[in-house]
Amino acid sequence: MGAGTAIVRARDEGERRWFLGGGTHTWMLRAAETGGALYAFEDAVTQGKVTPYHAHPDTDEIVFVLEGEVLVNIDGEEHVVSAGGMTYTPKGVPHAFMVRSTTARLLSLQTPGTSESFYWGASEPATSDEPGPTDFERVGQVAQGTGATRMLGPPPFPMHQPSDA
After folding, report:
1. Contact assessment for residue 26 and residue 44, using Cβ atoms and an 8 Å cutoff
2. Which of 136, 51, 61, 64 is nearest to 98 (CA)?
3. Binning pLDDT at 50, 70 and 90, where does residue 165 land?
4. In this structure, are residues 157 and 71 in contact, taking their beta carbons and an 8 Å threshold?
5. Pairing with 111, which of 56, 58, 89, 100 sits 20 to 30 Å away (CA)?
6. Where are the domains positioned within the chain?
7. What is the CATH number of domain 18-125+132-153?
8. pTM of the entire predicted model
9. How far apart (Å, rounded) are the C-alpha atoms in residues 146 and 150?
């Protein structure tokens, strides 16, 4: 499929990858399929999954909460977002999230699609339905190597346990 081609995918038709920071991504759209305009993946995560405080210098991020509930911190302000809600984080704005429900499904879209290399490089093909490996050192190395994500510090949530980072 090339840019400009209509794409229709069912829920489980995208390529599944274990994100090494936690969760399983199902890729619904790749940047190459949209002419670089955007990419989208579903993120299946479990309670306690937390991201470090980070920013995407060149992409805007939209996250729809399909199931479950997350606590987000965007530029120092916390919000609880439940199923049916969404967040929009402009490029360069610091943010993080933590899963509060037992499980959650998020749909993440970033535009333009230039930062796909971070998520792809910091993940591995999912070979089962079991949780995949975590490797925060590799996630940090890929972030630094691609420049697509700037790690700004630990998760900004008071109830976060440092051993989860």
Report:
1. yes
2. 51
3. very low
4. yes
5. 100
6. 18-125+132-153
7. 2.60.120.10
8. 0.89
9. 10
